[in-house]
Design a protein that fits this description.
The chain is an alpha/beta fold and about 450 residues long. Helices cover about 40% and strands about 15% of the residues. The protein is globular. The two termini are about 25 Å apart.
Length: about 450
């Protein structure tokens, strides 16, 4: 989810072409004597017009994907060098899902964005990319996930495949004799053992200040109950159409209620960090690579940062599914599209925007991107050594039900859901059922506002 968020500067090259028309003159005389020279037609005519310089186009690229901002800036510089008449301005916003609402409302509309929501599709905010030639290179499963259920068209394209689950310290697990947890009882038991045997280590670290990380817990764990019950296609339709009889957000014992109760269990038992509400995503990564925490929830997009912070840890990082939070259900692993791009329907420069995407989609650029992000490419003609967790990721996919991202209303983003989890941890809701009821109310309100 969705699912993550940095700001920088750019360079551009300007090419101006000028052509001057040459003026020529000729002699028109008699061989036998002096003649008066008359101006030739070319001398008296107006100079040939100079070729008009190619107009400089500025593309606005709006993103909420924090991990790739620096790399995209490098690719932008290469693109601008090859296309001196096009300048690309990247804008990163931490709360991109909400910021883009303001942009659409104010008319400050980007040409390209990584922010995508179903109701914006319904409102015609994105350009139809269904007939673009790059689809022949995209994995069929990823193309399917990028296909709008209602229209059957593609308004976005993903360059990568991503997974999300539990990252854990393999050394700690081996030392304490722990195994990957698939049930909630196993998961909580592992955390309790870590707390008892290693009191200076935080068993599970939450980065609550960056609310999207908490929103992901709902998207993967709570919504995972719904997604495994109905399967990818039917679950997507249920979220998009707000099929309350399937979602059952406020049901006692349902996914939202169970998630809230489980999280409060961890808090009360001291199995998560005491500063879970104020700790940042950077704090989460730093705690893990320095051995101050044993495990955390994230997606494969975090792997590159972990290895940058501590390259020597590559062999000590474990990856497993999210444990089942409702008895009788199965563990889940996110397996979905990643690094999604859409062109807005109101872009004044759609052809230049397509040209920029074509550049990003070159095999050599996708290879660099995949290896930087440590995420498998979604394009079949790209071979990338994307990271040390290939085997463990494959095992996680086998061990858990594979789920996709949640199609949320634009008025209730992952950040918004995460802020509700902040409130849960802060004690705003008396019971997990109260939280589930409030969650359903917030979802329904947002869905109703965008589907009038």
């Amino acid at each position: 989810m969705i699912l993550r968020k940095r700001v920088m500067g750019f360079t551009s090259v300007i090419l101006i072409m000028a052509m001057a028309a040459a003026c020529g003159s000729g002699n028109n005389g008699n061989n036998g004597g002096a003649a008066t020279a008359e101006p030739s037609p070319s001398a008296s005519a107006e100079p040939a017009p100079t070729e008009k310089p190619q107009e400089k186009v500025t593309l606005k690229f709006f993103t909420g994907k924090v991990e790739t901002v620096d790399l995209i800036n490098e690719l932008i510089a290469k693109f601008e060098a090859e296309n001196p008449n096009i300048k690309v301005e990247q804008e990163y916003q931490k709360d991109a899902s909400n910021v883009i609402k303001v942009k659409f409302a104010s008319g400050d509309i980007p040409d390209i964005t990584t922010v995508y929501a179903q109701d914006y599709v319904d409102q015609g905010k994105y350009l139809d990319l269904s007939n673009e030639p790059f689809w022949s290179r995209v994995l069929p499963a990823i193309k399917e996930l990028n296909t709008d259920i209602k229209s059957g068209k593609q308004f976005r394209v993903a360059t990568n495949v991503t997974m999300a689950g539990i990252f854990y310290n393999k050394k700690v697990f081996e030392e304490l004799g722990l195994k990957e947890a698939h049930t909630w009882a196993e998961f909580k038991s592992n955390l309790q053992t870590i707390k008892d045997k290693k009191p200076d280590m935080t068993p599970m670290f939450l980065a609550g200040k960056d609310s999207w990380t908490l929103g992901h817990l709902i998207e993967f764990m709570a919504h995972g109950v719904i997604k495994q019950k109905y399967g990818v296609a039917d679950a997507r339709a249920a979220f998009i159409n707000n099929e309350s009889e399937k979602l059952q957000f406020d049901a006692e014992g349902g996914g939202i209620d169970a998630f809230a109760g489980r999280l409060l269990e961890l808090k009360e038992a001291g199995l998560i960090n005491g500063d879970a509400i104020t700790a940042t995503y950077d704090n989460q990564k730093e705690a893990f690579v320095t051995g101050k925490s044993a495990l955390f929830s994230q997606g494969m997009w975090v792997l590159g940062d972990l290895l940058t912070l501590n390259p020597g840890m590559a062999g000590d990082i474990g990856f497993s599914p999210f444990p089942a939070i409702v008895d009788g259900t199965k563990p889940v692993t996110l397996s979905a599209e990643d690094s999604v791009y859409a062109i807005t329907a109101e872009s004044k420069h759609p052809e230049e925007a397509k040209k920029f995407l074509e550049f990003l989609f070159k095999p050599e650029n996708l290879k660099a991107y995949s290896e930087f992000l440590k995420s498998p490419p979604a394009f079949t003609d790209v071979s990338a050594d994307w990271g040390p967790l290939k085997d463990q990721a494959a095992a996680a996919l086998q061990a858990g039900v594979n789920i996709a991202f949640t199609d949320t209303p634009s008025g209730f983003s992952g950040d918004d859901a995460g802020r509700m989890v902040q409130e849960l941890l802060a004690g705003k809701y008396k019971t997990s059922v109260d939280f589930a009821s409030a969650y359903k109310e917030a979802w329904d309100k947002a869905w109703g506002a965008t589907n009038k």
